[in-house]
C-alpha cells in the first residue's frame, strides 16, 4: 500500500488522533497556499511599480488613479467569486490595489466630515486601503486647494454645513468627483485631479443652478444637497464631464 502524503509530511506519533492528523493536513495545505499567495502578491507589486512608470497621465499635477481600470478589475474578480465570498473578496482586492498604487507613490487622502467622521473614514479606508496615508482636516476649501495642486485626494462630506461642491463649477473646475461613500445616497464624495477619460462608468455627479425646481434640462436626478439656488445631484444619464449639464464627475 503506497504511503499517503500525510505520512510523508508528518511522521505521526502513536498518540496522535485521526482528527489531529486531519487538522495538521489542513494547516499544511494553508501554509502551501500562503506561500503561493505571497509569491503572486510580490510579483503583482513589482508589476504595479512598472505600470506606474508606463501610465499615460494628463498634463499638470495629478494623482495616479485610474478609477475606470480599478472598477473593471473589481467587477471581473467579483463576477468570478462565489456569492458568499464577494464581500471578503472586495475588501481583499481593495487592499491589494491600494498597495499596488503605493508602489507608484503612497496615496495621500484628506477627509473632512464634521458630522460623521468615522463613517467617512471607514468608507475612505475601504476604498483606498491600508496603504493610504489618511488624515482628518477642518477646512474643506483648503482640502480642495490641496487636491487641485495634485497632492492627493479629498474625501468631503455633503449636507454637512459647507457647500464646498459649488466650487467644482467655478474655482475647482480642474477637480473631478470619482467615488462616493455612505450607500446608495452618498454622504461623502471623493475628489481629485483625475483624467476625465479615467472616470468610472456609473452615475454622473451634477452641480447645477436651479435649486429643487431643477434647471429645465429634463434629466432625472437624485438630489444630495442644495445651497442658494445650486443643487448637487446624481443622474443615470451618460453626460460628459464639464459640459453644459454641469457634470463634475462620476460614481461607479
UniProtKB/TrEMBL annotation:
GO terms classed as biological process: chorismate metabolic process
PROSITE patterns, per database record: CHORISMATE_MUT_2
Organism listed in the record: Brevundimonas alba
Protein name, entry field: chorismate mutase
EC number(s) stated in the UniProt entry for this protein: 5.4.99.5
Example GO molecular function: chorismate mutase activity
Broad EC category: isomerase
Domain Chorismate mutase: 17-108
Organism domain of life: Bacteria
